[in-house]
């Protein structure tokens, strides 16, 4: 008696499973997906929070340990209102050494602007956003949500004629290939039984995303690729569209020049990449010492070109780099080709020697290793162990009382005082004070070529307790 009952139960469950599986065929899978994902059409207002951790050795504290906790990550919240075509986004990125770069931006019926929450990068300058700001953020939010990717497929295809559907041998996985109007090929792999998206390949950016760790939260099932939270909302709170006190659009665009400008006797400044990077030159008789080699070979070629035009009779002898992050070293090759020696601390040199992009050219590099407090041609170099990069150094032009630094200080171009100070900056300022360096001017590699000692001290005093 008992046995029979169990058999019937097993039979019933087999019938149930198989009939469910049989239901999904190449012919009806799109209808079934439409049924399951119908709810996406009702999501007009929502909020999504996601996290992104980039593993990048050459933005890490130690290039050998990009996985360390000290390294950077970003956490982003996007609120979308598709009915009103409004959005509000909060982007917060953290970099080693406790640098926090934080922006809020929004578009409503009045404004489309962004501002720098801590004022570290842009100070109090508001930025006007482009006309398609809503569309861009709407797309961006959809990128992280598995069901939104499926909605793209279901709403984007034309009656199946642009779709190719294949089932694997075991009828476990279905592959649906969709060629879009712009000839982008998106290949979706679904688990046939659950109709969950497993993988999406796209030729648009040659990406392959695995959608795994499905969770149900706030009544929605989604793959937790990087999503921390998702919920429907009633719309975006008006308070999110307020511009905080003190922020304003800049009067006019600063003039952009990459000319070689004299700032002291035998000291010149080059401004590159729209005022975002600064290179310093020190002339010593017929030789030139260059400080900073950012971004790319292209950038360096232009800089070398303007140096050679300005000083046709002189040769570049040295180029100094502060630490081995890719945005600070990627311009070294054109210098190496000219036989210019790279000045850096031992850790930075070791990292440069292992930089994958220099694999072909590294043999042509010449190096000059500096130790802490070493003095070369009137420039005192300081090498500090710090939280941003295992070692980072800065240059102090003793006679001129000018500091050139890479990622030790991040005061914005308008010299307003940020509301967050990183651990690295604290350490740097404390060090400058303890060494009793007289400073007339700090040339930041980033964004601000003229930070006074007063501004530096005000920044410290306003934030360090
Ligand atoms: Zn850095």
Model description:
There is one protein chain. With 465 residues, this protein is α+β, with helices and mostly antiparallel strands. The protein folds into two domains: 239 residues, no CATH class; 203 residues, 4-Layer Sandwich (Metallo-beta-lactamase, Chain A), CATH 3.60.15.10. It is 23% helix and 32% strand. The protein is built from ten helices and 26 strands. The protein has a seven-stranded antiparallel β-sheet with strand order 6-5-4-3-2-1-14, with helices on one face. A seven-stranded mixed β-sheet has the order 15-16-17-18-19-20-21. A hairpin with a 2-residue loop joins strand 22 and strand 23. It is elongated. Bound molecules: zinc ion. Zinc ion binds next to loops.
Q: How would you concisely characterize the structure shown here?
A:
This protein has 465 residues and is α+β, with helices and mostly antiparallel strands.
Mean pLDDT: 90
Coarse structural class = alpha+beta
Q: Sketch the major β-sheet.
A: 7 strands, antiparallel
Total beta strand runs: 26
- Total DSSP helices: 10
> Helical proportion?
10-25%
The figure for the number of domains is 2
What would you report as the Rg, rounded to the nearest angstrom?
Answer: 28 Å
- Kindly report the spatial arrangement of strands forming the biggest sheet: 6-5-4-3-2-1-14
Associated small molecules: zinc ion
Specify the overall morphology: elongated
Distance between the termini: 79 Å
Low-confidence stretches: 1-21
Report strand %: 25-35%
């Amino acid at each position: 008696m008992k046995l029979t009952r169990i058999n019937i139960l097993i039979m019933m469950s087999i019938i149930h499973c198989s009939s469910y599986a049989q239901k999904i065929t190449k012919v009806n899978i799109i209808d079934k997906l439409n049924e399951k994902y119908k709810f996406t059409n009702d999501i007009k207002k929502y909020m999504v929070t996601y996290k992104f951790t980039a593993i990048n050795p050459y933005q890490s504290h130690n290039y050998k340990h990009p996985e360390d906790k000290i390294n950077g990550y970003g956490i982003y919240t996007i609120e979308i209102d598709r009915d009103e075509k409004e959005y509000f986004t909060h982007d917060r990125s953290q970099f080693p050494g406790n640098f926090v770069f934080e922006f809020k931006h929004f578009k409503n019926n009045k404004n489309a602007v962004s501002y720098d929450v801590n004022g570290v990068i842009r100070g109090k300058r508001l930025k006007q956003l482009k006309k398609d700001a809503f569309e861009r953020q709407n797309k961006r939010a959809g990128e992280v949500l598995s069901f939104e990717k499926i909605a793209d497929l279901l709403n984007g295809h034309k009656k199946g004629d642009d779709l190719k559907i294949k089932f694997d041998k075991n009828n476990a996985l279905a592959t649906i290939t969709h060629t879009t109007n712009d000839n982008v090929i998106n290949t979706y792999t679904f688990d046939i039984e659950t109709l969950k998206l497993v993988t999406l390949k796209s030729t648009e950016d040659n990406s392959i995303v695995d959608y795994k760790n499905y969770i149900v939260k706030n009544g929605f099932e989604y793959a937790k690729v990087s999503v921390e939270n998702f919920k429907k909302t009633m719309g975006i709170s008006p308070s999110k569209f307020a511009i905080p006190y003190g922020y304003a659009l800049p009067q006019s665009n600063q003039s952009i020049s990459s000319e070689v400008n004299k700032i002291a006797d035998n000291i010149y400044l080059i401004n590159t990449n729209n005022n975002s990077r600064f290179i310093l030159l020190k002339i010593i008789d017929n030789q030139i010492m260059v400080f900073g080699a950012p971004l790319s070979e292209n950038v360096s070629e232009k800089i070398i070109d303007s140096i050679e035009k300005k000083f046709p009779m002189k040769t570049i002898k040295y180029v100094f780099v502060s630490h081995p992050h890719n945005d600070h070293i990627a311009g070294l090759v054109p210098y190496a080709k000219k036989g210019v020696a790279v000045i850096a601390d031992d850790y930075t040199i070791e990292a440069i020697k292992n930089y994958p992009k220099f694999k072909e050219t590294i043999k042509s590099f010449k190096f000059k290793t500096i130790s802490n407090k070493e003095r070369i041609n009137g420039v005192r170099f300081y090498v500090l162990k710090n939280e941003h990069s295992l070692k980072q150094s800065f240059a102090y032009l003793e006679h001129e009382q000018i500091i050139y630094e890479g990622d030790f200080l991040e005061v914005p171009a308008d010299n307003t005082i940020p509301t967050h100070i990183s651990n690295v900056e604290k350490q740097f300022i404390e060090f400058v004070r303890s060494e009793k360096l007289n400073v007339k001017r700090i040339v930041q590699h980033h964004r601000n070529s003229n930070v006074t000692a007063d501004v530096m001290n005000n920044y410290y005093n306003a934030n360090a307790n």
